[in-house]
Amino acid sequence: MTMIPLSHSPSATSIRPSSTPPPPPAARSGRWRLRTADTAGVGAADHAAAAEALLRSGLRPESLPRHVAVVMDGNSRWARARGLSPADGHKAGGRNLERVVALSRVWGIRALTAFVCSHENLNRPKAEVEHMMGLSEWLIGDNVDKLSRQGIRLQVIGDASKMPGSLRRAAAQADEATRHNSRLHVMLAICYSGRWDMVQACRELARAARAGELSPDDIDERVLASRLATSAAGELACPDLVVRTSGELRLSNFLLWQAAYSEFFYTDKMWPDFGEAEYLEALRSYQSRDRRFGQTRV
């Protein structure tokens, strides 16, 4: 099992497509195309309004979380409640992710990790899984140029062996095109699980030890963390705030190591309905927390 990308691993195979991969069939038919009118928060006026909303909210910009992680739950239930298909729900969820990325950039969030598809999601009906993979590929390809212009880095993390080849190529191309951007680091967790993440890190360390590159006694928390999927984000590898939508009160195998000292915010809103007001509420909740990291305040 490998991740995309494994920039810290000298044994990782780098994927360098020579041209943009073609969109999946449904995308070519127009079914998944995300029109500009559908993506709030991408224009200059929308950015100005979002910045003003942050000021009006009473939030302290200097105390915002640097890294926000979101479990984008409830897309299928959102669709079912409206008589729509699961595919329609995932499409709406993709649109909303664009909005949340735009808000994060305007508000000064430094890293955003979105749980797009888990290992467990791969057990859903084949048609739904194929749609999630195809939509993920299209979202990456349709946004990479815009994100690059905005100084946003886009990276896909997860088990590449479970991804279609076209998605792996789109992910590698996005990483190559945006790797030098630093305004916001967006990580899309696709075919990801926290347990898988720790297992693959241990395997890398075991291979390194067998090759004589390190001693087992050298392995500590810092060394193991350097092999996790989010390690490319450096000091931003661990989320300060984890947001979960749809009323579920669990982590669902997401960033198990990295979220050890994260603050959590749960909302009953389905992911497609998680908008600016809900995001501001999550940030207000975060700023109300006393983060002691196991220590006692004197």
TrEMBL record:
Its EC number is 2.5.1.-. Residues 1-30 are annotated as: Disordered. GO terms for molecular function: ditrans,polycis-polyprenyl diphosphate synthase [(2E,6E)-farnesyl diphosphate specific] activity. It is an enzyme of class 2 (transferase). GO terms for cellular component: cytoplasm. One of its GO terms (biological process) is polyprenol biosynthetic process. Keywords: Transferase. Residues 7-18 have a biased composition (Low complexity). Belongs to the UPP synthase family. This is Alkyl transferase. It comes from Setaria viridis (Green bristlegrass). The lineage of its organism: Eukaryota, Viridiplantae, Streptophyta, Embryophyta, Tracheophyta.
